[in-house]
């Protein structure tokens, strides 16, 4: 039972203890599942909040970038990937997962709080 719980938590780091219990159909409480995860050093963490960027922050950074790269030759500019600022979701849906069991996972985003997406400029 312990290995199955640990394996599932490692395979799906955003899964909750209740979801682990239900999907494995375990005859134990969610507290027991959390205890087993804790014993395996897979502790629950909530993604940290990051400040939302305001329009003036983005404009300031773009102006700074433009001033720093004004003298670049055409060859360097050809190596830049230009996009239409589309949102790219890297890990599943854009909804907020509230649990993670990996201590090494660090959630940060500059587009919106608790977002797992990146904007390409």
From TrEMBL:
InterPro entries: RNaseH_sf (IPR036397), Transposase_Tc1-like (IPR002492). Residues 2-71 form the Transposase Tc1-like domain. GO terms for molecular function: DNA binding. Pfam families: HTH_Tnp_Tc3_2. Coiled coil: none annotated. GO terms for biological process: DNA integration; DNA transposition. This is Transposase Tc1-like domain-containing protein.
């Amino acid at each position: 039972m312990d290995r199955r719980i640990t394996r599932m938590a490692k395979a799906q780091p955003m899964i909750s203890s209740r979801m682990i219990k239900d999907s494995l159909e375990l005859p134990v409480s969610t507290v027991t599942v959390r205890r087993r995860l804790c014993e395996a050093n897979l502790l629950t963490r909530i993604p940290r909040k990051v400040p939302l960027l305001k329009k003036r922050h983005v404009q300031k950074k773009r102006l700074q970038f433009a001033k720093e790269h004004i003298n670049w030759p055409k060859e360097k500019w050809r190596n830049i990937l230009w996009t239409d600022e589309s949102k790219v979701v890297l890990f599943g849906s854009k909804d907020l997962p509230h649990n993670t069991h990996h201590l090494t996972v660090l959630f940060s985003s500059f587009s919106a709080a608790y977002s797992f997406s990146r904007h390409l400029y």
